[in-house]
Amino acid sequence: xxxxxxxxxxxxxxxxxxxxxxxxxxxxxxxxxxxxxxxxxxxxxxxxxxxxxxxxxxxxxxxxxxxxxxxxxxxxxxxxxxxxxxxxxxxxxxxxxxxxxxxxxxxxxxxxxxxxxxxxxxxxxxxxxxxxxxxxxxxxxxxxxxxxxxxxxxxxxxxxxxxxxxxxxxxxxxxxxxxxxxxxxxxxxxxxxxxxxxxxxxxxxxxxxxxxxxxxxxxxxxxxxxxxxxxxxxxxxxxxxxxxxxxxxxxxxxxxxxxxxxxxxxxxxxxxxxxxxxxxxxxxxxxxxxxxxxxxxxxxxxxxxxxxxxxxxxxxxxxxxxxxxxxxxxxxxxxxxxxxxxxxxxxxxxxxxxxxxxxxxxxxxxxxxxxxxxxxxxxxxxxxxxxxxxxxxxxxxxxxxxxxxxxxxxxxxxxxxxxxxxxxxxxxxxxxxxxxxxxxxxxxxxxxxxxxxxxxxxxxxxxxxxxxxxxxxxxxxxxxxxxxxxxxxxxxxxxxxxxxxxxxxxxxxxxxxxxxxxxxxxxxxxxxxxxxxxxxxxxxxxxxxxxxxxxxxxxxxxxxxxxxxxxxxxxxxxxxxxxxxxxxxxxxxxxxxxxxxxxxxxxxxxxxxxxxxxxxxxxxxxxxxxxxxxxxxxxxxxxxxxxxxxxxxxxxxxxxxxxxxxxxxxxxxxxxxxxxxxxxxxxxxxxxxxxxxxxxxxxxxxxxxxxxxxxxxxxxxxxxxxxxxxxxxxxxxxxxxxxxxxxxxxxxxxxxxxxxxxxxxxxxxxxxxxxxxxxxxxxxxxxxxxxxxxxxxxxxxxxxxxxx
Length: 804
Ligand SMILES: NC(=O)C1=CN([C@@H]2O[C@H](COP(=O)(O)OP(=O)(O)OC[C@H]3O[C@@H](n4cnc5c(N)ncnc54)[C@H](O)[C@@H]3O)[C@@H](O)[C@H]2O)C=CC1
Ligand SMILES: N[C@@H](CC=O)C(=O)O
Hints:
- There is one protein chain.
- The two termini are 51 Å apart.
- The strands form 5 sheets. Strands 3-5-2-1-8-10-11-9 form an 8-stranded mixed beta sheet, sandwiched between helices. A 7-stranded mixed beta sheet has the order 21-20-19-18-22-23-24, sandwiched between helices.
- α1 links the parallel β1 (2-6) and β2.
- It contains 28 helices and 30 strands.
- By secondary structure, it is α/β, with parallel strands linked by helices.
- Bifunctional aspartate kinase and homoserine dehydrogenase that catalyzes the first and the third steps toward the synthesis of lysine, methionine and threonine from aspartate.
- Pfam families: AA_kinase (PF00696), ACT_9 (PF22468), Homoserine_dh (PF00742), NAD_binding_3 (PF03447).
- InterPro entries: AceGlu_kinase-like_sf, ACT-like_dom_sf, ACT_Aspartokinase, AK-HD, Asp/Glu/Uridylate_kinase, Asp/hSer_DH_NAD-bd, Asp_kinase, AsparK_Bifunc_asparK/hSer_DH.
């Protein structure tokens, strides 16, 4: 036989109650032998309790009582609830007159909810032709006399149940009231909250059921509450021991006491969804899962009490006094943690008891305050407890580090030695983010990385498209979910917390809003977005002003923009200090050599103690293309320059390349990687723009490109034979000193030399070091272009996700 238990939400008016009847009917038709245990319908128990409170205060409860009755009758006018309604009328009237009620009376009131529920379902089943039998559990389950939370007397109860089921067996479906029972004097008692589940597991035990099916309104037990963690996954199988841990830590679908009768007889428990027939739910058996489960549970509405004092050190019995004083006031402590120095003790209590707990402790430690042994007792009101069940300390660093990276610093944490769980107290306003961060870290579910992209021109736009194209594959291979939640230009931003789609350009036009950087930060905060990365694909100085703010608000940074690394050395250091303080990263591999792995290589060589003595080469992709082509082809300088612009090799303002600033910046960035403290002003630059063309805006300059032609024709002609022009950067001098020599210049080199061999838009970097001697490490390849640069930025994003 299977025992089926239906909860309040399943039995609510409308779809619920009809579905419950359908489920039972179908099982009977299939020939299954079943027994049904029911809770009160909808929120009946809470409503009856509220009416009782109104009655005891002599308030007008009639309206609420009428609403309760109306709900119960609803479309079921032909079911007779007169007896139950009369009982309620009398009980409430009495309570109202007396201005008092006992737990005994309360049990009588609440029990009507289950009686009405079972009576109704029995009636509806009979209408369908099912041989249903209303079974009042008060005639079966006998308890001690403790009203409100009675304990079943097993031998007697079992005898009654077995006898009853012998009498009503075969095709009969017993529809049993959950939650309620009676004592030896035949008075109504109740089994406490979750009592209906308890009734169901007692029946399953007494009747040696093959399975207990608990029908709820959720698909089973999840790795975390899906309302708080959208990525939460259903757990297919659990062991009773694991379920017990979950039950203890607030997974209110289970309660420890309801599992014990099942464990005793090894009866599987399946948690099912009344409203989703196709779902197999979660199966709980005595078999331990191989890997051990992990799950997150949350205690909300708790407060953290902190007791501090130097004089507590080594004092005997402080904890005992805390517990005793609080126990005396019936205040339960869910977590206690104390430093080895015993100077501070933190304890978690229910939020509504925090004020009383503080007062109680202040009274208990009054003389210790006087002696200055205790200095303060404070309450942190808005906190929550997250318990990572199945977590031991060997791998706890992973979720913990992820929390810190996301700027969630737990106020307190503790673990059990054998129970394999770690609990963390966090500020309530960080709960949502903390849960999602931990969840992403401990489950083999994709870790979500939330990206804000600033600048969607050539590089930025290509990057967005590259990410959207590869996102699925990356998620499959690396379990990283790249979510672009913001795309901004200098005027507008498109904000989509679940990620922009391939139509982002049109969406930005249509739904983009004017913004300040603070609003993007706030958006990420309000939507609890974790693992934040801001990408700067602008060429803007103004945007770099936001870097420090972004880092302070938990963003890692990636930039193709070179400006931030070439502002004053003071800013350079301040940014790095802020990054360190906030444990954030800043990656900018594309700043020099676009997608080439240059910065990483130099960093590694330098960090490993390799003495870099000189770096020399063609640093600019656009100018490489310009001079490589112009040197060997019989074309006008202006024509080739326009081609470089059209191919997307130049800066947004091409004069930045031609005036040498772009190469100067790259050189300075490399110098600073070697710990040199040069400023931009230290770079000696050959400006390729003749003086008469330097003033004015970019558009007017582009209109006068032909004026460059005679200048460069002469330079080309003045070269030695078999020589070509190259615009190079050169970092030299004694690089062990504070500053190096940084030069950017146009040179004529033999076409057979390494520099002379460079083709297309390739950059070439010769890195001279002590160990490598005269033979430099050479890195060569495409040094400009939207696709390679965007790919380089993408690489930095992936590097960051791996560091996490
Ligand atoms: N093109 C290339 O080969 C390479 C470019 N880079 C760098 O990539 C960056 C982007 O270059 P492109 O895409 O070619 O430029 P672009 O001019 O095509 O795009 C720049 C974008 O930045 C936006 N923008 C400007 N100021 C902004 C602000 N304050 N806030 C938000 N958005 C702002 C503009 O609206 C535009 O969408 C530059 O810093 C460049 O130095 C780096 C390596 C190679
Ligand atoms: N304009 C730059 C682009 C890469 O940094 C270049 O030409 O190299």
